[in-house]
Amino acid sequence: MYCYFQEMISLSTFFLLGIFFVGFRIYKKGWRSNRFLLFVIGLFFLMATTKWIPTKLVAQYESQVTVCQPQLLDTTSTYYIHVLGAGYSLDPKLPATSQLESTTLTRLVEGIRIARQLPHYKLVTSAYSKYGLESQASVAKRAAIELGIPSQKIEMLTTPSNTAEEVEAFVKKFGTTKKVIVVSDALHLPRAVMLYKKAGISAIPAPSNFLIKQGPNDYNGLTFPSYQSLSLMNNYFREQLKYWKDSW
Which residue numbers delimit the DUF218 domain (predicted)? Predict the structure, then answer.
Protein backbone atom coordinates (compact mmCIF):
# COMPACT_ATOMS: atom_id res chain seq x y z
CA MET A 1 0.00 0.00 0.00
CA TYR A 2 2.82 2.39 0.89
CA CYS A 3 4.50 1.73 -2.47
CA TYR A 4 1.33 2.63 -4.38
CA PHE A 5 0.88 5.77 -2.30
CA GLN A 6 4.50 6.75 -2.97
CA GLU A 7 3.94 6.39 -6.73
CA MET A 8 0.97 8.76 -6.52
CA ILE A 9 3.18 11.53 -5.11
CA SER A 10 4.22 13.42 -8.22
CA LEU A 11 3.97 16.83 -9.82
CA SER A 12 1.37 15.42 -12.20
CA THR A 13 -0.89 14.61 -9.25
CA PHE A 14 -0.36 18.06 -7.75
CA PHE A 15 -1.20 19.74 -11.08
CA LEU A 16 -4.42 17.73 -11.38
CA LEU A 17 -5.41 18.54 -7.81
CA GLY A 18 -4.60 22.20 -8.44
CA ILE A 19 -6.77 22.27 -11.57
CA PHE A 20 -9.70 20.69 -9.71
CA PHE A 21 -9.26 23.13 -6.83
CA VAL A 22 -9.15 26.19 -9.10
CA GLY A 23 -12.04 24.84 -11.16
CA PHE A 24 -14.12 24.53 -8.01
CA ARG A 25 -13.20 28.08 -6.94
CA ILE A 26 -14.06 29.43 -10.39
CA TYR A 27 -17.42 27.65 -10.20
CA LYS A 28 -18.10 29.28 -6.82
CA LYS A 29 -16.59 32.75 -7.27
CA GLY A 30 -15.87 33.24 -10.97
CA TRP A 31 -12.56 33.29 -12.83
CA ARG A 32 -11.63 36.94 -12.11
CA SER A 33 -11.03 36.29 -8.42
CA ASN A 34 -8.84 33.30 -9.30
CA ARG A 35 -6.61 34.87 -11.94
CA PHE A 36 -3.56 34.83 -9.69
CA LEU A 37 -3.97 31.12 -8.90
CA LEU A 38 -4.39 30.36 -12.60
CA PHE A 39 -1.24 32.32 -13.36
CA VAL A 40 0.78 30.50 -10.67
CA ILE A 41 -0.36 27.04 -11.78
CA GLY A 42 0.28 27.92 -15.42
CA LEU A 43 3.76 29.22 -14.59
CA PHE A 44 4.72 26.11 -12.64
CA PHE A 45 3.31 23.94 -15.42
CA LEU A 46 5.51 25.66 -18.00
CA MET A 47 8.55 25.42 -15.73
CA ALA A 48 8.02 21.68 -15.26
CA THR A 49 7.12 20.74 -18.83
CA THR A 50 9.63 22.73 -20.87
CA LYS A 51 13.02 21.04 -20.89
CA TRP A 52 15.38 23.76 -19.73
CA ILE A 53 14.56 23.95 -16.00
CA PRO A 54 14.17 20.17 -15.41
CA THR A 55 17.44 19.63 -17.26
CA LYS A 56 19.31 22.20 -15.17
CA LEU A 57 18.02 20.76 -11.88
CA VAL A 58 18.75 17.13 -12.79
CA ALA A 59 22.17 17.90 -14.31
CA GLN A 60 23.20 19.81 -11.18
CA TYR A 61 22.06 16.97 -8.93
CA GLU A 62 23.71 14.25 -11.03
CA SER A 63 26.98 16.21 -11.00
CA GLN A 64 27.30 15.44 -7.27
CA VAL A 65 28.70 12.04 -8.28
CA THR A 66 31.49 11.47 -10.79
CA VAL A 67 32.22 8.43 -12.93
CA CYS A 68 34.20 5.82 -11.01
CA GLN A 69 37.85 5.50 -12.15
CA PRO A 70 39.11 2.09 -10.93
CA GLN A 71 42.70 2.87 -11.97
CA LEU A 72 42.82 5.53 -9.25
CA LEU A 73 41.86 3.09 -6.48
CA ASP A 74 44.13 1.05 -4.21
CA THR A 75 44.75 -2.10 -6.24
CA THR A 76 45.95 -4.05 -3.20
CA SER A 77 42.51 -3.84 -1.54
CA THR A 78 39.38 -5.89 -2.15
CA TYR A 79 36.37 -3.84 -3.22
CA TYR A 80 32.77 -4.92 -2.81
CA ILE A 81 30.89 -3.62 -5.84
CA HIS A 82 27.25 -3.35 -4.77
CA VAL A 83 24.94 -3.17 -7.79
CA LEU A 84 21.54 -1.93 -6.60
CA GLY A 85 18.41 -3.48 -8.10
CA ALA A 86 15.88 -1.72 -10.33
CA GLY A 87 13.44 -4.32 -11.65
CA TYR A 88 13.31 -7.56 -13.64
CA SER A 89 10.95 -10.02 -15.33
CA LEU A 90 11.19 -13.80 -14.98
CA ASP A 91 10.56 -14.72 -18.61
CA PRO A 92 12.05 -18.24 -19.04
CA LYS A 93 12.39 -17.79 -22.82
CA LEU A 94 14.99 -15.08 -22.31
CA PRO A 95 18.60 -15.10 -21.14
CA ALA A 96 19.19 -13.53 -17.73
CA THR A 97 20.55 -10.34 -19.29
CA SER A 98 17.21 -9.82 -21.05
CA GLN A 99 15.20 -10.63 -17.93
CA LEU A 100 16.68 -7.60 -16.18
CA GLU A 101 15.05 -4.22 -16.71
CA SER A 102 17.25 -1.95 -18.82
CA THR A 103 18.04 0.21 -15.78
CA THR A 104 19.21 -2.82 -13.78
CA LEU A 105 21.22 -4.16 -16.70
CA THR A 106 23.00 -0.83 -17.22
CA ARG A 107 23.90 -0.74 -13.53
CA LEU A 108 25.22 -4.30 -13.77
CA VAL A 109 27.30 -3.48 -16.84
CA GLU A 110 28.84 -0.53 -15.00
CA GLY A 111 29.64 -2.80 -12.04
CA ILE A 112 31.29 -5.31 -14.38
CA ARG A 113 33.26 -2.55 -16.12
CA ILE A 114 34.73 -1.58 -12.76
CA ALA A 115 35.29 -5.18 -11.67
CA ARG A 116 37.32 -6.00 -14.76
CA GLN A 117 39.80 -3.26 -13.86
CA LEU A 118 40.32 -4.38 -10.27
CA PRO A 119 42.51 -7.33 -9.28
CA HIS A 120 40.52 -7.98 -6.10
CA TYR A 121 36.74 -7.59 -5.99
CA LYS A 122 33.39 -9.08 -5.06
CA LEU A 123 30.35 -8.23 -7.15
CA VAL A 124 27.26 -7.95 -4.93
CA THR A 125 23.79 -8.20 -6.50
CA SER A 126 20.69 -7.41 -4.50
CA ALA A 127 16.87 -7.15 -4.37
CA TYR A 128 14.11 -9.60 -3.57
CA SER A 129 11.17 -11.16 -5.39
CA LYS A 130 7.83 -9.58 -4.60
CA TYR A 131 6.03 -12.86 -5.37
CA GLY A 132 8.36 -15.32 -3.65
CA LEU A 133 9.95 -16.45 -6.93
CA GLU A 134 13.60 -16.30 -7.97
CA SER A 135 15.00 -13.09 -6.57
CA GLN A 136 16.24 -10.17 -8.63
CA ALA A 137 19.65 -10.68 -7.00
CA SER A 138 19.74 -14.23 -8.36
CA VAL A 139 18.79 -13.18 -11.90
CA ALA A 140 21.42 -10.43 -11.80
CA LYS A 141 23.98 -13.01 -10.68
CA ARG A 142 23.08 -15.25 -13.62
CA ALA A 143 23.37 -12.25 -15.94
CA ALA A 144 26.79 -11.38 -14.55
CA ILE A 145 27.94 -14.96 -15.15
CA GLU A 146 26.63 -14.72 -18.73
CA LEU A 147 28.78 -11.60 -19.09
CA GLY A 148 31.91 -13.39 -17.92
CA ILE A 149 32.09 -12.87 -14.16
CA PRO A 150 33.06 -16.08 -12.26
CA SER A 151 30.30 -17.27 -9.93
CA GLN A 152 32.72 -17.40 -6.96
CA LYS A 153 33.25 -13.66 -7.37
CA ILE A 154 29.54 -12.88 -6.84
CA GLU A 155 27.61 -12.46 -3.60
CA MET A 156 23.84 -12.00 -3.30
CA LEU A 157 21.47 -10.10 -1.01
CA THR A 158 18.09 -11.68 -1.73
CA THR A 159 15.81 -10.00 0.83
CA PRO A 160 15.89 -6.18 0.31
CA SER A 161 12.95 -4.39 -1.33
CA ASN A 162 14.34 -0.84 -1.40
CA THR A 163 17.60 1.08 -1.16
CA ALA A 164 17.61 1.45 2.61
CA GLU A 165 17.07 -2.30 3.01
CA GLU A 166 19.84 -3.03 0.47
CA VAL A 167 22.32 -1.04 2.55
CA GLU A 168 21.05 -2.64 5.76
CA ALA A 169 21.37 -6.14 4.26
CA PHE A 170 24.92 -5.42 3.09
CA VAL A 171 26.00 -4.24 6.54
CA LYS A 172 24.34 -7.22 8.20
CA LYS A 173 26.14 -9.70 5.92
CA PHE A 174 29.54 -8.06 5.46
CA GLY A 175 29.91 -5.55 8.30
CA THR A 176 31.18 -1.99 8.06
CA THR A 177 34.89 -2.57 7.40
CA LYS A 178 34.69 -3.46 3.68
CA LYS A 179 35.63 -1.05 0.92
CA VAL A 180 32.39 -0.48 -0.99
CA ILE A 181 31.67 0.79 -4.48
CA VAL A 182 27.93 1.36 -4.88
CA VAL A 183 26.48 1.32 -8.39
CA SER A 184 23.18 2.99 -9.21
CA ASP A 185 21.60 5.71 -11.35
CA ALA A 186 23.35 9.07 -11.14
CA LEU A 187 20.12 10.66 -9.87
CA HIS A 188 19.75 7.99 -7.19
CA LEU A 189 23.36 7.72 -6.01
CA PRO A 190 23.54 10.72 -3.62
CA ARG A 191 20.82 9.06 -1.54
CA ALA A 192 22.47 5.63 -1.68
CA VAL A 193 25.84 7.08 -0.61
CA MET A 194 24.10 9.01 2.18
CA LEU A 195 22.47 5.80 3.46
CA TYR A 196 25.82 4.02 3.43
CA LYS A 197 27.37 6.92 5.35
CA LYS A 198 24.59 6.67 7.96
CA ALA A 199 25.46 2.96 8.27
CA GLY A 200 29.13 3.78 8.90
CA ILE A 201 30.61 3.17 5.44
CA SER A 202 32.14 5.78 3.12
CA ALA A 203 31.00 4.19 -0.13
CA ILE A 204 32.51 5.17 -3.47
CA PRO A 205 29.78 6.19 -5.94
CA ALA A 206 29.69 4.60 -9.40
CA PRO A 207 26.93 6.33 -11.40
CA SER A 208 25.12 4.92 -14.42
CA ASN A 209 21.95 5.76 -16.36
CA PHE A 210 22.60 9.50 -16.52
CA LEU A 211 19.33 11.25 -17.38
CA ILE A 212 21.18 14.31 -18.71
CA LYS A 213 23.99 13.93 -21.21
CA GLN A 214 25.73 17.04 -22.44
CA GLY A 215 27.51 16.05 -25.63
CA PRO A 216 27.70 18.26 -28.74
CA ASN A 217 24.69 16.44 -30.24
CA ASP A 218 22.47 16.87 -27.14
CA TYR A 219 20.02 19.75 -26.92
CA ASN A 220 19.05 20.82 -23.41
CA GLY A 221 17.51 24.23 -24.04
CA LEU A 222 13.94 25.47 -24.14
CA THR A 223 11.35 23.23 -25.78
CA PHE A 224 7.60 23.07 -26.16
CA PRO A 225 5.82 21.51 -23.17
CA SER A 226 6.20 17.75 -23.28
CA TYR A 227 5.49 14.64 -21.24
CA GLN A 228 9.22 13.76 -21.33
CA SER A 229 10.13 17.02 -19.57
CA LEU A 230 7.38 16.52 -16.98
CA SER A 231 8.62 12.96 -16.39
CA LEU A 232 12.16 14.28 -15.88
CA MET A 233 10.89 16.82 -13.35
CA ASN A 234 8.84 14.12 -11.62
CA ASN A 235 11.94 11.93 -11.27
CA TYR A 236 13.85 14.82 -9.70
CA PHE A 237 10.95 15.74 -7.39
CA ARG A 238 10.46 12.18 -6.15
CA GLU A 239 14.17 11.65 -5.56
CA GLN A 240 14.32 14.83 -3.47
CA LEU A 241 11.39 13.61 -1.35
CA LYS A 242 13.00 10.18 -0.87
CA TYR A 243 16.33 11.76 0.08
CA TRP A 244 14.59 13.91 2.67
CA LYS A 245 12.69 10.90 4.06
CA ASP A 246 15.74 8.62 4.23
CA SER A 247 17.96 11.30 5.76
CA TRP A 248 15.79 11.42 8.87
Answer: 80-239
Residues 66-114 have pLDDT tens digits of: 999 999 999 899 999 999 999 999 999 999 999 999 999 999 999 999 9
DSSP track, 172-201: HHH-S-SEEEEEEETTTHHHHHHHHHHTT-
- pLDDT band (50, 70, 90) for residue 128: very high
Q: Are residues 23 and 100 in the same domain?
A: no
Residue 27's domain spans which residues? 2-62+227-247
β partners of residue 156: 125
**CA–CA distances in Å: residue 129 to residues 9, 160, 165, 173:** 24, 9, 14, 19
Residues 133 and 199 in one domain: yes
Q: Cα(40)–Cα(119) distance, rounded to whole angstroms? A: 56
